[in-house]
Design brief:
homodimer; 264 residues; alpha/beta; 9 helices; 12 strands; 21% strand
Chain lengths: 264, 264
Amino acid sequence: MSESCIHPGTVWLVGAGPGDPDLLTRKAERLIRAASIIFHDALVGPEVLAIAETGTRLVPVGKRAGRHSRSQEAINGLLVQAAKDGERVVRLKGGDPSVFGRSGEELAALRNAGIPARICPGVTAASAAAASACLTLTRRGAARQLVLVTGQARAGERLDLDWDLLASGRTTVAIYMGKAAAAGIARELMRAGLAASTPALIVENASLPSEQSLSTRLDLLGLGAAALSGDGPMILIVGESMGQAEPGRPSAGMSRQPLLAERS
Amino acid sequence: MSESCIHPGTVWLVGAGPGDPDLLTRKAERLIRAASIIFHDALVGPEVLAIAETGTRLVPVGKRAGRHSRSQEAINGLLVQAAKDGERVVRLKGGDPSVFGRSGEELAALRNAGIPARICPGVTAASAAAASACLTLTRRGAARQLVLVTGQARAGERLDLDWDLLASGRTTVAIYMGKAAAAGIARELMRAGLAASTPALIVENASLPSEQSLSTRLDLLGLGAAALSGDGPMILIVGESMGQAEPGRPSAGMSRQPLLAERS
């Protein structure tokens, strides 16, 4: 509990979770309230930022696919300078800071500058997407491992994933930021041996009121991803665990259309 | 927010996070307060359970390695019966319910009985362990994928993991409940080609005041796991990302001894 205060000159990398402010941890909530300045990703929504105290400076440093508002180096520099200025710094990231958040580069920059840094973990998008669909990411007999990868390549590079690993069976594969690459990912997974009929779940804006999701199958992953109309972050989850029938649950706020799967 | 109430006769599978009650989500906190009965794992500590209202029935149904206090079938039956009795049921699990929590079996039982079920996600142990050590699970250039597996085999069976794939490089492997199998896991990963010097992090009781952790290397994983003195849940994380030098951070509540690594 005592960790929820911020010593001036310290930088906390804080996981904001998948989007729903109710999915912030209690610790993240306190750190957001304790901050004097918050550098936040574009994926961190206004409901989360509204938790900050009046007077806290909110600095968007967001990167979204194809629209990098600041370079990583510039962000690193801002964090170091704010800490040197004696601010109580929160670097607020969607999901969990340790999962595809480029936290490694920020931690290295802080370390090189002699700035103390800490991490507050968060709920990662795969957990939130599965929860919304009332599905589990691992399941006895169906999935012995869960693999998290990102569907975003470095600028100018091909997506460099180990398709044989991902297609090895009894594996649940969660692809973060997978919208643009969905069709290509499906093609590679099938080429590596995964059945076209492997169940897949597509969730955009997981946990938010604008959440959309679709239960489909691997060979329709590209179509499904294109069919969701939003421009929010999308996670693709592929594996037999996504084929669990859904228990009776209200469908409010979510469209789970089996349409694409039925058309196949 | 409206989801934080519980309709009588509904079962919520709720992630309690890694242990620190501050790492509960705000939603989990509300659901715990709203429950009339809570079935909880052994790994859910008293600080978390203290959040429940006076009068809420707390029913331990915990399973710990080698000490199964109730069969999974018995737990399923308890959940179904409590829902049929019109209780506001919370099934409280350590970490995230979707990650090695056997939620699939409980969801199937509820579905078969026509009971509405929902999931509230939580912070999983790998995220918390990395955060405590101020390390990231993925890092550009070092890890393109994060694989979560469990170190517990079914009773009487050998650990059935895909060693070649776990050892395939640029991969961070997080092994849940890995204490007993640590030496064997290291042996298999090295046999599959992973370097003996691959950095590894061992964390017991991640996020709790009793947390102990050790930065070591793959060939010393078994020794390191045995060296930690607690009997709490242990996570092993193996991969180049665990070799990031640590930024200046206070070490309160944590012993990060490089001893074993130096002795090698």
